[in-house]
# Entry
Amino acid sequence: MLITGGARRVGAQIARTLHSAGANILIHYRSSAGAAIALADDFNRLRPRSAAIHCAELLTAQAPEQLVAATLMEFGRLDILINNASSFYATPVGQITLPQWDDLMGTNLQAPLFLSQAAAPSLRARRGLIINMIDIHELRPLKAHPVYSTAKAGLAMLTRALARELGPEIRVNGIAPGPVLWPEGGMDDDLKREIVDKTALKRHGTPEDVARTALFLAQDAPYLTGQIIAVDGGRSI
# Structure
């Protein structure tokens, strides 16, 4: 298995959950070297030679092929690709810059496309799975985040398009989390309460909720493709 942005936060929990289920994992990271090393060490103590790490800037032309090659070199196969890495920050209209556009569209849409393309031959041989980490804001744009929301909407369509293009050998699905982890830069407590109050379950979720959904797609959903599962406590309704 290859997961991008797998060293921290939701990505790390997905990696833990799938590793516990028996997966060997290549953890991609860009700047979180310490977290990636620590996570892989934990995995390898539990099951020797079951995890490795690889640093890459996903927006470079060579990164997709390099990550797939590194996974095959470590484990000899690739069954699951999880496109988890993401950039997230506000871009209010009137202040949007071209570098912001390139970064947000690149990490959230361009990288998943080209990684999926690079991984397709190996995944096809294993009748494998691609999971794209989307966001409920692909349907309901987040205020002051038009570029991010647009990128995630594009990733939702890419998920459906790849399911058609890569079937029948490869399944392609998405997970759209709602209020699971708050932004690292912090968020006003009143806004947090407002967001949670708009969920049907009246509570925020956890990374484990997202990770269990990834495990379901990997283990128990052989007839599911082209679907996006909202893990949001009912926020999207």
Q: What stands out?
A: The chain has one domain: 2-231.
